Queue: 2 jobs
Job 1
Amino acid sequence: MPPLPTITDTFRVTFNWNTLHGVAPKNVLHFRSATGDEVDVGAAIQIGIAATADPSHLFHCLSDDQECDQIDVLKLDGASATVPLTLTTAVTGGSGVGQVVPQGAGIVSLRTTVRGPRGRGRVYCGPISEAAQENGTLIAASVNVMQTAWEDFIAALPTATEPVALVVASYEHATAANVQLPIVRSIIGTQRRRVDQLR
C-alpha cells in the first residue's frame, strides 16, 4: 500500500466492526477539523451518532449482530500516529438477526460541490442482512431510515465544540471536499474484499 497523503486538517477514521460469520468489516471515512485533534473528531462523531433517531439507522441494512464500538483516528499530516477511541454509543445494524450476504453492501453516495471523481465518495455498508434486501435491492424501510440518519449525522458534526465536517478525500490529488449531500442507493453494491476473508 502506498504511503498516505498529507491533507490539511483532514482525519482518516476507520470504523472497526466485530467479526460476524467470518467477516470483520471496516469502514473508512474522512473528516475535517481546522481546530480540533483526534479526540475532538471522535467527540463530534459521537454527537453525530446521537443526532440520529437510533444508532442502528446509519447502517440499518446490517444484521443486528453487527456492532462497531471502536474507531481509529489518524490525522493526515504525515507525522501523527493512529489514535484508537471507544464509542460510548456503539453503532449497530438494524435489520434483525439472521443470515447475511457476504459480498452485498448498501451504498451511501457522498456528493460534494467538486466536479469529477475527486468530489465523489461512497460508503459500503455491508455485509447486508438477508432481511434487508429483496431481489438485489435494499428494502424501502432500510433506505428511508438510512437516508434520514446520514443527513442528521452530517448536519450535527459542525455543532460539536470543535466543529467537524464529513469530507470526501482524494488521495491522488491530496485534497478534501465537504460532503453536501448523502444519497442512499436502493441497488446493492459489491464489496469483494470482505469475501476474501472467508477464503
Job 2
Amino acid sequence: MGDVNKVFLMGNLTRDPELRYTPSGTPVCEFGMAVNRRYTTRDGEQREDPCFVDITVWGRRGEVVSEYFSKGKPIFIEGRLNFDQWETPEGRRSKLTVVADDFQFVGGGGGGRGGGGRQSRQGGGGRSQQQKQSRPQREPEPEEPEGDDLSEGFDVSDDEIPF
C-alpha cells in the first residue's frame, strides 16, 4: 500500500509572514495559522477548538505570501506534513509543521489562485466562476460528546461492531 502525505487547511494567519533567503538565494516564508473547529454540544452551546499550525512556503510562492498576506488574513493551504528534529542544550526537540506546496486567497478582495501571484500581476480582484465552483466546501461538524466517557451518547448495537 502506498503512502499519502497531503494536507488541506483553511484558516487565518496568526502572525505576519516572515520572509528570509537561504545562502543560495532561495526564498522561504514562515507564518503561523489558526484553523478553528466549530461544533455544538448536546446542550446547544457553540464551541470553538482552535488548532495552531506553523506553515513554511518556499520559492516564489513564499514571496507572494509575504507580500499579500498579513496577520488575521484568511488563506487556504495545500501541502504536506514535515517532522523536524534538532538538538538543544536541554535535549532533543521536535516539531510537526506543514510545508505549503500551493495556496489560495480566501474571502473578498485580492482573490484568485495564489500559486505564483498570477492574479495579482493581472491586477484583477475576485475569482473566476470556475474557481468559485471548485472551492472546497466545509462540512458541518458532528456533535462532540462531553465528559470523560466517550461512549456515552452513542447508539451503537453489537451487530454494528466489526470485531
